[in-house]
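Per reviewer request, we include the raw input and output of the structure prediction for the construct analysed in the revised manuscript.
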Amino acid sequence: MRLAYLLVPLAVTAAACEVHMDGTAGGAQTPASTTTAAPAPAPAPAPAPAPGPVATTTPVTPVAPLGPKVRVKAPHGGTIEVPVVAGNNDFGGSTATPNSLIGNIYFLPEGTSKLPDFTGMTPVGVLYTEKLAVPPRRFDQGFPGVPNNRTEWFGIRYDGRFTTVAPGAYKFRVNSDDGAKLWIDGTFVVDNDGQHPPQSKDATITLSAGAHTIRVDYFQGPKYDIALELFVTPPGKPEQYWAPAL
């Protein structure tokens, strides 16, 4: 009896050891534990690039192509080729007619305060017009087709011819900004020279009926205001813009 008592706990102990060794107890099995890997963390977003300089576009003023060239008198004899303005501006245009004044364009040094003697200077361009009718206004177009186009510090010498029907006293008036001078048949008639706002000067000269020559010198100082008007009062008639036939 004592021996049997001792064997029973021993058997129970062995069975218990068997359960712990294989994880079973002769009944339902305990499932083996499984480990699920945690998802890898998402990569951090790349930092946004630092803003660079903002591109800006500077408006580009289109440059007119050079106008066709014509030959004009050189200051020391002979002739030279200069471009004709492209299209029209306040002082003239590219189309010559039999009655046109021919205007030679000159560039002047900055600070010019009086008309220079254009005779010894080389023109940079040419334009044509049948009247000088530029009332006071802003001038920012320059002379398209002429190299190194300008809106200030330039001069123009106009030469041409005109005819009168009646003999008598003709009153000429020049309104200009800046300076201008007028010659008729080589005689100096009106002096409106100097750097000034629009102002008028006039003089009277006796002319015969027939053909006459005319010259007008003009210069523009600092930009932008201009004016160049030539008026005439024929005998017995009201004042009008000068024209090739009076």
